[in-house]
Amino acid sequence: MTDRKAELAENLAEVEERIAAACRAAGRARDEVKLIAITKTFPASDVALLAELGVTDVGENRDQEAGPKAAEVPGLRWHMVGRLQRNKAKSVVGWADEVQSVDSARLADALAKAVRAVQTAQIRDEPLDVLIQASLDDDPERGGCPLSELGALADRIAQSEELRLRGLMAVAPLGADPDAAFERLARAGETLRKDHPNAADVSAGMSHDLEQAITHGSTCVRVGTALLGGRGLASP
């Protein structure tokens, strides 16, 4: 465990320096960019070690894996970053502080209904923070809301008392120039904030392209491999 903590500490320091360097190059302050550790397939023990090292935000792609981890390592801010089916909404709102992958009105409505239920049961008081996942390649297999439909979905979310619109999330298209993709996302974010000024978060950039994302205004990078290494076995 000591060796693993040392490994994670070294990786974290390297990621932090990459983020800091990218912020300096972009003329931005380091505290403008949040780091979310993506811990999918890694055990809760790794999450606990990252917490000891100062990590406060953790992201997961699968509800069935995230719920037990969140229960085992309390006190962190948990983010759902993977594609989400509507029938998982009730489970997700039990552990997630934020859902970054809202890409349809039907999913937004399902999450709002689930939040209402847990609020009625006095399990949760606050609204659920959500980001709209924007599609930068119009590939339905990868999820995401088409850029032309962002405004309508944002309006729908903003009308809900159970959801709090925080901004946009996106993944650069496979094989594409991440600079061009993140520039498109930045323009979409500017348009969104004209009607929803509080939706200022931009979640973009992962282990391989966080520098480009920060250059184009990302306020949140989602880093897995660079922090934890190659994917291990799924946690129990």
Automatic annotation (TrEMBL):
Keyword Coiled coil annotated: yes
Database matches in InterPro entries: Ala_racemase_N (IPR001608), PLP-binding_barrel (IPR029066), PyrdxlP_homeostasis (IPR011078)
SUPFAM superfamilies per the UniProt record, alphabetical: PLP-binding barrel
Coiled coil: 5-32
Keywords on record: Coiled coil, Pyridoxal phosphate
Positions of the Alanine racemase N-terminal domain: 13-231
Pfam entry (one): Ala_racemase_N
N6-(pyridoxal phosphate)lysine modifications at: K40
The keyword Signal belongs to this UniProt entry's keyword annotation: no
Family: Belongs to the pyridoxal phosphate-binding protein YggS/PROSC family.
Function, in words: Pyridoxal 5'-phosphate (PLP)-binding protein, which is involved in PLP homeostasis.
HAMAP family attached to this UniProt entry: PLP_homeostasis
Protein name (record): Pyridoxal phosphate homeostasis protein
Organism listed in the record: Amycolatopsis plumensis
